[in-house]
Structures are given as structure tokens and as C-alpha cells.
Amino acid sequence: MYINILLPYKEKFSKNKASSVSITVYNNLEHSCYKSKIKIFGQFVDKPMFKENFIGIKKSMNFFKSKNKTIADEMCKIINNSNSSGNIIEIHNRPYLIKNIKSMLKKEHYLTLFFHNDPLEMKGSKTVSERKYLLSNLHKIYCVSKYVKKRFLEGISKENDKNKIMVLYNGVMRKEQKPPKKVKEVIFVGRIVEEKGVQLYVDAVK
User: Which of 102, 99, 129, 97 lies closest to 114, judged by CA?
Assistant: First the structure.
């Protein structure tokens, strides 16, 4: 069994340019006992983290083809060429790729999807019917918070497939050996963009 991880195209799996999804995948890989069985597919970078696990895909010469679909297609080709089955495939934050990936894979595999952001704002999971499709066609759906899970399940009545979705929090390495002395500080962590809620932070500290 192998674990194949598909990153969004915008993610750069390199030490100096990694953003949130890449950092999460890096941290998980660093502590995984399955490291030798993991392959990460993403945008080509010159100096990737875990270069022995990373497969960089260069963008297609077809300017009309989605960059995310290019990476997904190449991943599927490599998996098909291995002639193996029963592998785990992790797709991060790109629900609209699921149908295409399922159609390209020649053998049975375990498809999983990680939501790092609000599913109702993502292509492929905005509508109830799209989310029902995901529940029916994925083996597991992981959400980084209870809020993300709640949003995914909006409008979906009680079904057996609901046990497929679970909350999996991002871990943080503790550098301090003991809890530091508390200081009353309010900080914002994240990109300075609306979807990260920076406007709420600004309003709160005014």
C-alpha cells in the first residue's frame, strides 16, 4: 500500500515558499512511520522538501488546461503505471477534481479529501448535491475544524455516509519544555486576505 498526496497547484512544496497546506503535509510526513510509502504530487519546484518523496509536475503546454487537473492527471498516470491497487489517495482542498480522478484510475483505491477551508466556498462542494456526491464516492473526508465539518454537512440529512467525515486537527510542534509565562497579547496569524477573517481581527482590536 502506498499513500499518494495531491497538493493544490498554488502550493509550493519548498522550505522558503511553503504555505499552509504544504506546511501541514510536511509536518505530517516528518513524523509519519509510513514515510517510505508516501509520494507527494505538486507544482514543480527546484528545491523541494523531502525530495525523495516529492514528484514535481511542470505545467502543461496547453494553456487552456487547468493546472490542478494537469497535476491530478499525471498522478493518476503514475499510479496506473505502477499496476497496484488499494492505495490511499489524499486530495487537498480541490473537491472538483474527484470525478476526474475516479474516472482516470484503472484500479480500486481509497480516495480521501482534506478540507482546509470552508467547503461552501470551493468549486465542487458548494451545493448540497455536490457534497452528497463526495460523501458517496470518497472513503473518508477530513476537516481541519468542527466548523468546516458543520459547513460541509449543511443541508444534508442524516445518512449512513456521515460517518465518513471526521475532524482532524492540524498539529503543532512544541518547542518549549514547559508552558511559557502568559502575556496578554492578541495576534493575527494568516494571510492578510478577507477569507482569513483579517477584517474581523481589525474590527475587534480597534
Answer: 97
Q: How far apart, in whole angstroms, are the C-alpha atoms of residue 159 and residue 70?
A: 34
Burial 25-42 (b: 16+ CB within 10 A, else e): bbeebeeeeeeeebbbbb
Which residue bears the cell 474581523? 200
Which amino acid is located at 78 in the chain?
I
pLDDT in tens, the chain (206 residues): 899 999 999 999 998 888 889 999 999 999 899 999 999 999 999 999 999 999 999 987 777 789 999 999 999 999 999 999 999 999 999 999 999 999 999 999 999 999 999 999 999 999 999 999 999 999 999 999 999 999 999 998 866 677 899 999 987 777 778 888 888 888 888 777 777 788 888 888 87
Check: CB of residue 40 under 8 Å from CB of residue 28.
Answer: no
Cα 21 from Cα 92, distance rounded (Å) = 8
Residue 119 exposed, middle or buried by CB count within 10 Å (0-12, 13-18, 19+): buried
Residue pair 103/91 in contact (Cβ under 8 Å)? The answer is no
The answer to whether 110 and 88 are in contact (CB under 8 A) is yes
Which helix (H) or strand (E) segment holds residue 69: the answer is helix 67-81
d(CA 88, CA 7): 14
Q: What is the dihedral of CA 60, 63, 66, 67, to 10 degrees?
A: 40
Closest by CA to 16, choosing from 38, 39, 42, 45, is 45
